[in-house]
Design goal:
mainly alpha
Length: 426
């Protein structure tokens, strides 16, 4: 009987491993989207740029040309990852605002949106407060004020603003209600509201809305462990926009984290990096190399990431990534940067980074105080829970570690295989 029990346990363990490596993706589904010459979105943006740039060159004071070019350069940033495009857009919006005789609020919102992309949230707040003075399009301003309040950790203000824009039939309200629900730890509700928003986008057959909802609900499905739904949603995005770099990266993550196919994940990333130059991909490649125990490749990719991310034009955009990286290599530098990030946006997610760096420099008691005051019970974000567990462990709080470990084991897909190994050791 004992032998039979042993066999059952071993079989169950093997089955568990198989489940973790269950095949979700199929390269036949997305191979055509990895063709680096297949860039319809970028090509369309480039064509628009040439047209409006020619018109602008003939009259550099013409407001319409400046406004259109500002939007085009922002789109080029999204399409290429080139931060200079976002900076060019910023300057054009500023110039447009200065010469505009009316509709000043429109330019203030546009500039605020640009600053949000740059993680300049406090500056965006000031602009939106100024835009709110104008009576037209206040609801649009309120929606952006909600977005900024969430980024800054001003949750009471965000809750109030959510009440002001309430409209259960409005796409923009529903996606923000989903964000609020996720913040409150109710992932099921968040998905429900996103699915309602998806229905609206599909009924309107609005391409831009469908692109937004398919990619974002794909992320939420992933958080919920609904990986097939997540994958299918990403494919829907690519059907509409074959050169969407974001969802291709998410598929690469799925291939790596869920299926442990590092070769295929790298193949996908390599194809993205031909046309999109953001630092993110080097960071993911470094993690994949770490999982493969390829130390030289890991270090190479980290160096490439740092070279890109430390570009001053990025400002605070990569602070969270840099803090995590510096925490391992230069904890004192990480601690200083964490303090800067707290000043930029004081959220539970940034405070957990501060606690992590405090732990890394040897201030375990200070780290515990930070967790207890600003993180515990205020976020369900897996990285925050992981760093909280490390702090509790350092302070001998085994009961709290055990509770968090159980939660974290269910978040292994989000955290990735490298972190999953560390969780097992808690």
């Amino acid at each position: 009987m004992k032998k039979l029990v042993t066999i059952i346990i071993v079989f169950a363990a093997l089955l568990g491993c198989q489940e973790k490596r269950e095949k979700i993706t199929d390269s036949k589904d997305y191979d055509k989207y990895l063709n680096t010459a297949n860039t319809p979105s970028k090509d369309a943006i480039q064509k628009d740029l040439e047209f409006w740039q020619n018109r602008y060159n003939n009259d550099t004071t013409h407001l319409m040309e400046m406004s259109r070019l500002a939007g085009i350069h922002a789109a080029l940033f999204g399409s290429t990852g080139n931060i200079s495009e976002l900076k060019t857009s910023e300057e054009l919006i500023k110039k447009s605002h200065d010469i505009a005789a009316r509709n000043k609020d429109t330019y203030l919102r546009s500039l605020a949106h640009n600053y949000i992309s740059q993680h300049r949230f406090k500056e965006a707040q000031v602009l939106l407060d100024s835009a709110y003075i104008y009576p037209d399009n206040r609801k649009e301003t309120e929606m952006m004020l909600f977005d900024v309040a969430m980024e800054l950790g001003n949750y009471k203000s965000a809750d109030t603003l959510l009440g002001k824009i309430k409209d259960p039939k409005d796409f923009n309200y529903l996606i923000r209600l989903a964000k609020w629900s996720d913040h409150e730890g109710n992932l099921d509700a968040a998905i429900k509201y996103l699915e309602q928003a998806k229905q609206i986008a599909e009924e309107r057959d609005n391409k831009s809305l469908k692109l937004w909802i398919y990619s974002n609900i794909g992320d939420f499905y992933g958080h919920a462990g609904r990986l097939e739904d997540s994958y299918n949603s990403y494919l829907k995005t690519l059907e509409l926009e074959p050169d969407n770099h974001y969802v291709k990266k998410q598929i690469a993550w799925m291939v790596y984290s869920a299926e442990k196919n590092t070769e295929e994940a790298n193949r996908i990333l390599d194809s993205i990096m031909v046309n999109h130059k953001a630092p993110d991909y080097n960071l993911l490649k470094a993690e994949i190399a770490a999982y493969n125990e390829n130390i030289s490749e890991e270090e190479k990719q980290y160096e490439l990431f740092l070279k890109k991310a430390e570009n001053p034009d990025y400002g605070a955009m990569y602070n969270t990534y840099l803090i995590n990286l510096y925490a391992e290599k230069d904890p004192e530098k990480a601690l200083k940067l964490a303090a800067i990030e707290i000043n930029n946006r004081a959220t539970p997610e940034t405070y957990q980074l501060l606690a992590y760096t405090q732990l890394k420099v040897g201030h375990k008691e200070a780290a515990l105080k930070t967790i207890e005051e600003y993180v515990a019970g205020k976020t369900e974000e897996p990285k925050a829970l992981f760093h909280s567990a490390l702090v509790y462990k350092a302070n001998g709080m085994d009961k709290q570690v055990a509770i968090l470990k159980e939660e974290l084991l269910g978040a292994s897909y989000e955290l990735g295989p490298v972190k999953a190994k560390e969780i097992e050791k808690l």
